[in-house]
């Protein structure tokens, strides 16, 4: 029996790249928007921010694929069907995330914000660069995105440690795991990078108490989800100097509200949630592989553990 794939991401105006990739990789299968499909034929849904009630239109739906790595918003829905859920974990996301993290870490490791401020004052201000192996970088989350970013930072000669739920082996990275290891991990991170999923366990993981465990003046880079850091506590820590600088790509409310104190803080760099992006070509390959596996009854890669939250 032939089937179809419904695609729902309103931020993507042209889905012909996806449709062509599916036609080539899964002959006889159509990928289209809901209006262009017979709902009975839809077995797979590729979604990002689908409206409430979206899934109920498709009586033969078998699998939901989230068009992104983070599934916190999807899992929070009260209309989520009881079906397997997969997410994107594609090469382009890994590369773009590592590039962003590398940029943000090296910007601090090379004191660039100090020179940005000196330039605005019109001042030739020399600060001797710190040896990379004396700079301690802590990466919270050593998954698909965090592990690659950690390895790339380690390749620059910085001291890198990573924190996860279970033990990991990442080249050049000291790996610790579990909540008991967190206080010492924070106390020994001059630059802290957050690449965790947002789950009940990680929401406000970095509250005022844990931000106070960082070395005074530590730099914080959040590329994961805003709610993993208690934002008012971060603002206070940035104002007091406990946190020296922050690079923030994600926020508790997005877009960041105009009245957020973060906008005016000169020790904060704000980017609009774009640290990591998927490319249609590499993501389509992964989606085709997932559907092939599902049809063949093989184990799925990148399946979400709904109870765990990622
Ligand atoms: P993965 O699921 O591959 O990895 C998650 C990592 O976090 C794993 O190492 C996991 O540990 C660890 N972790 C989860 N919960 C805990 C916990 N309670 N305690 C300790 N460690 C924990 O996710 P990705 O690397 O693919 O993505 C990470 C997040 O990045 C996404 O969930 C998303 O929110 C965000 N993101 C942001 C983007 C942006 O543009 N800003 C774009 C894409 C993603 P273990 O492996 O041991 O279970």
Automatic annotation (TrEMBL):
GO MF term set: NAD binding; oxidoreductase activity
UniProt keyword Glycosyltransferase, yes or no: no
Pfam families with a match to the protein in the record: 2-Hacid_dh_C (PF02826)
UniProt keywords, alphabetically: NAD, Oxidoreductase
Superkingdom classification of source: Bacteria
Every D-isomer specific 2-hydroxyacid dehydrogenase NAD-binding domain range: 104-275
Name of protein: Glyoxylate/hydroxypyruvate reductase A
């Amino acid at each position: 029996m032939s089937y179809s794939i419904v695609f729902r991401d309103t931020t993507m105006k042209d889905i012909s790249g996806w449709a062509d990739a599916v036609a080539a990789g899964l002959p006889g299968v159509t990928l289209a928007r809901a209006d262009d499909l017979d709902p009975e034929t839809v077995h797979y849904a590729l979604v990002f921010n689908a409206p409430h009630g979206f899934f109920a239109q498709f009586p033969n739906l078998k699998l939901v694929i989230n068009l992104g790595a983070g599934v916190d918003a999807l899992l929070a829905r009260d209309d989520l069907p009881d079906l397997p859920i997969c997410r994107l974990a594609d090469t382009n996301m890994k590369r773009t995330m590592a590039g962003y993290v590398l940029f943000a870490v090296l910007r601090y490791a090379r004191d660039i914000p100090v020179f940005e401020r000196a330039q605005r004052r019109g001042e030739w201000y020399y600060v001797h660069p710190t040896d990379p192996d004396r700079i301690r970088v802590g990466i919270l989350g050593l998954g698909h995105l965090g592990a690659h970013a950690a390895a790339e930072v380690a390749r620059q000669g910085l001291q890198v440690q990573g924190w996860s739920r279970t033990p990991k082996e990442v080249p050049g990275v000291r790996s610790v795991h579990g909540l008991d290891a967190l206080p010492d991990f924070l106390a020994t991170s001059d630059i802290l990078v957050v690449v965790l999923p947002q789950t009940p366990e990680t929401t406000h993981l970095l509250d005022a108490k844990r931000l106070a465990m960082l070395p005074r003046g530590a730099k914080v880079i959040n590329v994961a989800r805003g709610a993993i850091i208690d934002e008012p506590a971060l603002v206070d820590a940035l104002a007091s100097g406990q946190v020296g600088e922050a690079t923030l790509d994600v926020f508790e409310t997005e877009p960041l509200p105009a009245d957020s104190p973060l906008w005016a803080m000169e020790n904060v760099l704000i980017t609009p949630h774009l640290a990591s992006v998927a490319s249609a070509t590499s993501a389509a390959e992964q989606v085709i592989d997932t559907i092939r596996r599902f049809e063949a009854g093989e184990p799925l890669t990148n399946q979400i553990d709904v109870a765990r939250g990622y």
